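Supplementary Note 3. Input sequence used for the single-chain structure prediction.
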Amino acid sequence: MTLDRRKILKLASATLASPSLERLAFAQSYPARAVRVIVPVAAGGANDTTARLFAQRLSESLGQQFYVENLAGAGGNLGIATAARAGADGYTLLAGGGNFVINPSLYAKIPFDPVKDFAAVSLMCGHRLMRRYRLIRGAYRNGWAELS
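The predicted structure, written as discrete structure tokens, is reproduced below.
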């Protein structure tokens, strides 16, 4: 099969145009309805306050209601399991904290798989100790003896 100049140009233009056509065909405004943010701890704590602040800003910027639902119990497993059972459509978010990471090692059976049942969307916040740890880890990887 020989490819002449016209066939090559047609293939190249089709290849370049296909991503934009796909975006046009499947473009939907998100969110089209209210979004539930599950916080697996009791109201009033640091996770709850942070989630409420983020939900308020997301509601203002995206023009759709983001509401926080506190589902405390079983060390956070009830709320995390509820988020795991929700449809993977982006209308249920989990504002997970330390219990999301720690509970699989604390409990013999948990009703969710933290790797298979969830996809990370964003990091809401961090702590300076986490940044310091990353800096120290990077320093050791790069062979630096000490940090200044």
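Residues 35-129 form a domain with the D-Maltodextrin-Binding Protein; domain 2 fold (CATH 3.40.190.150). The first strand starts at residue 35 and ends at 39.
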